[in-house]
Structures are given as C-alpha cells and as structure tokens.
C-alpha cells in the first residue's frame, strides 16, 4: 500500500496549529532550566504521562501551565523554529501559525516580546526551512471582549507581522457573538478572520462565526455535519474547515478515529483540510494526522489530493504567489 508514502510526501499547507501547543516536553524542560521556572512534573516522561484529556478544558489547563516557561523573545523564536523543522520534515510548504498573546501578557510579558520572537522565526523560514510561515493572533474567548480589544490594540504596532485574527480557548459558553465588535474592528483594519467553532460547541456557533464575525475559515467545524442547511452553506460558499483529527480523538470529540467525519465532510464537497492543532500534546504532527486518519477511515489517493489542494486554496497565501505552491 503506497498511500501512506503519498500522504507523507505530498506538498501541503498547515492552517491550524497553535505554536504553544507545539512545545515538546524536552524543550519545555530546557526553557524551564534556562529561565529558572519550576515545572509541576519531575521529568519529561512524567509530563508526557499527564497528557490524558477528557475534554478541551482539561487540555487547556495543562497547555496553559506549559506556557509558563516562555519568557524571552528568544524562547518564542526557538519554539517556532522547532515546529518549523518538524513541519518541513512533513513536506509542509506553508504554515499559518496561531498564537495567543493574552496567555503571555497574562504572565507579564509584552506583546512585542511574543510577536517579534515568533515573527523572526517566520521571516527565517524560507532560508532555514524552505517554507513560508505567517501568524494569526487568536483572542482567548474565555476572557472578555474588552480584553480582546486591549490585546488587538497592543498588537497594532506589530500589525505588519500578523496576517489574521482568530478565536480560541474554551468554546462552550463563549459563543462567537461575544466578540462581534472586536472582530468588526479587526476586519476594518484589514486582518483576515478565522474562528474556532463547532469543535465541542454546536452548529449554531458556526453560523454565528460566519454571519456575525464574518470569518473566512472555520477552525474544526466538525459539528457542521449535524446541520444539513449549514453543510449546504459551507459547500456553496466554499468555506474551508481546518479539521484536526488527532486533536478530536485526544479531546474525545470522537471516541475513535474510525468514527471521525472527515471522509463524510470531503465526500459532501466541503473544503476540509487536515491539521495538527497542538501536536506536542495530541500525539502527532501533520503527517501523523494524515496517515492515521486515512488508515482509520479507509480514505484514498483522491481524498489525499483533495485535502492537499484544499490546504493551499484555503490558505491566506497571496493569490499572485499561489501558483508557486500548486
Ligand atoms: N487552543 C489550543 N488548542 C485549542 C483547541 N483545540 N481549541 C480551542 N482552543 C485551543
Ligand atoms: Zn485549535
């Protein structure tokens, strides 16, 4: 069977990956030592053993604890380079990296420390890793819209280093409508817009991400399958879904990969892409998401080609440059 080889070797873009979720335990311990931060676990193995989650919130709590080791611009640069090296090994030609400034400003860092470190790695990506990388700032939806406005304001001096704005963190109880005004502002400022919706939350959150926030892509979006009218809307308007199968498995959105709806979404004509979300926590980078999911669902080379093509079509790569990739 040559499908796994095809999946690994095909050129692809990654559109849904939180850089803080790429921080491997080894690097976390190295940064903890460099910055004199005490971790709650005695060693790498004990930390990895703690990566068992029953839902999104249990993951977010551990993810947040891990970010405490990030202190300097160099830390953000080093974390991003580690991810870019892994992405290059998976034949990723372009990646759009999520980050949440508020996690770090909440620990006393400045937005400039975060954004400048991340951006320096993205700027080095073509020469160092043979790929392109851009940044999407995600507001934390468990915080207030007022706090999102403050976050946007603090990022504006680094405006040119950010391609888009997204919405992440605890979904249930924090519908897109909560951020209507700040997304309208981001839109006026010319940012591309995305939002997590329909991961654990209902299809109605996908509707409001589209109609209230006016996002161009939906992150996760797998719950759309419960709403035929929404499925029709997504197909008709070619709204991409950035699907993260191993994440959905680890956070128990689906009990097994064989029950994941990626194949059904693709066969319905949805512009679905495959992504790793938080690869250090969910058991695999992009190619691992492709190979495990395609095997579990019995997907074929046509699905492989479609998801790779979708990843470039759904990206925020300049239309004029897109022909370089596909
Ligand atoms: N932040 C990091 N990973 C996330 C996910 N899967 N959903 C929501 N927020 C996140
Ligand atoms: Zn995510």
TrEMBL record:
It comes from the Bacteria. Belongs to the metallo-dependent hydrolases superfamily. Adenosine and AMP deaminases family. Adenine deaminase type 2 subfamily. Binds 1 zinc ion per subunit. Its cofactor is Zn(2+). Its EC number is 3.5.4.2. Keywords: Hydrolase, Metal-binding, Nucleotide metabolism, Zinc. GO terms for cellular component: cytosol. This is Adenine deaminase.
């Amino acid at each position: 069977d040559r499908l796994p080889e095809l999946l690994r070797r095909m050129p692809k873009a990654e559109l849904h990956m939180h850089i803080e979720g790429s921080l491997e335990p080894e690097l976390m311990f190295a940064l903890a030592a460099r910055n004199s931060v005490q971790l709650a676990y005695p060693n790498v193995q004990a930390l990895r053993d703690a990566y068992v989650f029953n839902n999104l919130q249990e993951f977010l709590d551990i993810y947040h604890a891990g970010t405490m080791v990030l202190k300097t611009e160099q830390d953000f640069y080093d974390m991003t380079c580690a991810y870019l090296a892994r992405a290059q090994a998976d034949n990723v030609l372009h990646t759009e990296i999520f980050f949440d400034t508020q996690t770090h400003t909440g620990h006393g860092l400045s937005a400039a420390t975060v954004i400048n470190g991340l951006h320096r790695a993205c700027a080095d990506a073509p020469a160092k890793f043979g790929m392109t990388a851009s940044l999407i700032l995600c507001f934390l939806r468990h915080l207030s819209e007022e706090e999102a406005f403050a976050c946007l304001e603090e990022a504006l001096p680094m405006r040119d280093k950010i391609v888009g704005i997204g919405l992440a963190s605890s979904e249930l109880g924090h519908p897109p409508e909560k951020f209507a005004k700040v997304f309208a502002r981001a839109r006026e400022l010319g940012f591309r817009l995305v939002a997590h919706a329909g991961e654990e939350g209902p299809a109605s959150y996908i509707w409001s991400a589209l109609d209230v926030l006016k996002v161009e892509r939906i992150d996760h979006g797998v719950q759309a399958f419960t709403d035929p009218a929404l499925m029709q809307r997504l197909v008709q308007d070619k709204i991409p879904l950035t699907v993260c199968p191993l994440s959905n498995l680890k956070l128990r959105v689906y009990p097994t990969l064989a029950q994941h709806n990626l194949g059904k979404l693709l066969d319905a004509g949805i512009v679905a892409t495959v992504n790793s979300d938080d690869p250090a926590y969910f058991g695999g980078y992009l190619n691992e998401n492709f190979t495990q999911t395609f095997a579990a669902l019995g997907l074929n080379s046509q699905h492989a080609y479609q998801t790779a093509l979708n990843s470039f079509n759904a990206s925020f790569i300049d239309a004029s440059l897109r022909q370089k990739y596909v």
